[in-house]
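Need tokens for this chain, all 247 residues.
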Amino acid sequence: MRRPIPPCGPKAASGPGQEAQIQVIFRTQAFSGASQIGRGSMEIEIRGIRVDPRLLEPRPVQRCGPAFCRGRCCAYGVWVRVEQRDEILRHAELIKKVLPPDRHDETRWFDAEPEWDDTPPAGYWVGTTVIENPSHPAGQSCIFLLDDGRCSLQVAAMEAGLHPWALKPFHCALYPLTLWEGQLILDDENELYAEASCQQPAEEARPLFMVFDQEVKWVLGEEGFQTLLDLYRARYGTEGSSEPRGL
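Here are the structure tokens for all 247 residues:
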């Protein structure tokens, strides 16, 4: 049985290169910048995407890596838009260079029948094939997962000089962050997150938007990331105090 990654997240796509539209809102009054941060209940909206304020809270964690978890989050495959499926298939020969020979038949890479989903942006989605994989902790994995825990789509893109996530499904690139009902959050309320251990202990406390900085930039852009950094510094100070200012 396949679960999309993230398991319950909406099928939304985004990417870099768009101008950031930034709005910082408090429960009782709206402000246009970060100078008023530190009092009230904060809501952040960047490029039409709300950002969970908890992503600004310092935590003593660091990101995981495939050498540690061996791609635990890749056990159930992922749903991709048919447009991204077609883009992957256009690069089939490139991807085959890094896949084992028994996975070179691109007609086996995706489910045969796409499924319609009304969740904005509405469209047709298709699942990647899940195969038996004795080297994976779950005994199965996405067909694109390599034995060392890396994604063949990412490896192929990098070897071709493309952006590492040029071919990687949006939700895979973003995980363990996700978009849920228009909000960028940590997808930690599910079995998969607990199994994957996507955060590892660290001596230094940092906010999650900095721990997963590339993922945040992929969704919000460089300007959006800088806005979160400004908000964080205004609330916690440059050194990242564990207590918010003015609360």
